[in-house]
Structures are given as structure tokens and as C-alpha cells.
Amino acid sequence: MSWLDLLWPAFVAGLLVTATHAPLGIQVLARGIVFIDLAVAQIAGLGVVLAQWLGYEPHGVAVQAWALGAALAGALVLGWTERRWPQVQEAIIGVSFIVAANAAILLLAAQPRGAEHLQELLAGQILWVSPASLAWGAIATAAILALWLARGDRLGRTGFYLVFACAVTLSVQLVGLYLVFATLIVPALATHGMARRRLAACYALGVLGYAAGLGLSLAADLPAGPLVVCALALLGAALFAARLRRSY
């Protein structure tokens, strides 16, 4: 297997995640609910773990349905709590994340490969993403983007949470929870305050971050997911610093 055969599916997976998470990240930052991504992704992961605990095939349709169902249920609950108690929404999101994470740990504790499954959920296995997963991911990404471009500003609170849950469920299956959070927040944070071409800058940062991280992974023989996270963070910090220098 050549290096190109190994890297192109991972890079395409990164592009698919960036495609939906760049615009959603800007909205999440504007709404002040930064950690919703971790919470919904962890709830989706809990759905995956629960389905496996019940005996379903790890990569079957039933597991995907459990993941999506859990994420949608979590999104609906968080949407309701934002309406009911907006002043403590971030705290509720944090508690939701930690409860879902520890419930997953308890379910995985009895499984022979529990630690490995937990590692896959958090850091992902981006270098081993399958072409079949990419095909389904591309279809789902196109549908989410089409809905967002057509009605993004008219979805309302509940609609936003549901679209967000669908995007996160797809992404966490492709690249893992850490990369999902980094792709959502780092570009939006690095471009905070930009008046023009902000979304284009977010997309460029995501593409460069995945390309740099995957390239470094191949060169240094180190895990791809953590390197992409670090590459996104460093590139985001460099962009933010450059913008600060221009403003003075």
C-alpha cells in the first residue's frame, strides 16, 4: 500500500468533517455553547457503546441508528434546557458530557476490548476510515450542507440542535471525538471577529490542518488524530496572532 492509498481516505474524511463543522462552529461560538459538541458527540458515542453492549455488530446499521437516536435525543433535551434555564446551559452541557462519558466507561468495563473501543471513540481511527464510510459520509454531508444553506438562519433553536446532532454523529464515527471538537471550535475561534470571508478562512484552516497533521503522521510515524488536532491548534494560533499584529 502506497502512502497515497493510506492518506487519501483520511484526508477526504477530514474535508467532510470540515465542510459541516466550519459553519456550525461559527454558530456555536456565537451562541456561547462551546462544549455542546463534546456533549452531543459523547452522547452519540454512548449510543454506539450501548448498541455494542447489546450485541449489535460494531459497524452495522443498527449501531449507527443507536448513535443517531442517542444524539438526537440528547440534542432535544439540551435544546429544551436552553429554553428553560439559559443562564446555566453551559453547566448543563458539561454535566451531560461527563455523565455520558462515565456511562460509556461503565458499559465498556465488562468488554474484553473495552479500553480499545474507548480509545477509538475519543481519538478515532482516521487512517483506517473505509471508502464505504466516505461514500455514506459524503451523501449525509451534502444533505446537511444543503439544509443549512437553504434554511440555516430559519431553523430556530430546536432545528439547529437537531442538525448539529446529525453532523456530530456522522463526524465522530469518521474521525473521533477529539478531532470533531477541534474542527468545530479551533477555526471559529481563530477567525473570531473577522468581518469578511470568515467562513472561507475557517475552511482553509481546516484543510491545511488536516493536510499538515496527516503529512506529519506519515513522516514521523506518530498517531494521526492527535497530530491533526495539534496542527489545527498551531495554525489557528498563528492566524489569530497575525490578525492581532495587523490590528495594531
How helical, in percent, are the residues? over 70%
Distance between the termini: 50 Å
What would CATH call the architecture?
Orthogonal Bundle
Q: What is the fourth-level CATH superfamily?
A: ABC transporter involved in vitamin B12 uptake, BtuC
Largest sheet: none
Number of contiguous helices: 10
Radius of gyration: 18 Å
Q: In percent terms, what proportion of residues is strand? A: under 5%
What's the number of structural domains? Answer: 1
CATH class, anyone? Answer: Mainly Alpha
Order of helices and strands: HHHHHHHHHH
- Would you tell me which CATH topology applies? ABC transporter involved in vitamin B12 uptake, BtuC
State the total count of DSSP E strands: 0
The residue ranges in which pLDDT falls below 50 over 5 or more consecutive positions are none
Structural features, described:
- The longest helix is centred in the N-terminal third of the chain and has 29 residues, at 3-31.
- The chain has 10 helices and no strands.
- The protein starts with a helix and ends with a helix.
- The protein has a single domain (3-247), classed as ABC transporter involved in vitamin B12 uptake, BtuC, CATH 1.10.3470.
- It is mainly alpha-helical.
- The chain has helices at 3-31, 36-53, 61-84, 89-109, 114-123, 131-151, 156-175, 177-190, 198-220, 224-247.
- The chain is globular.
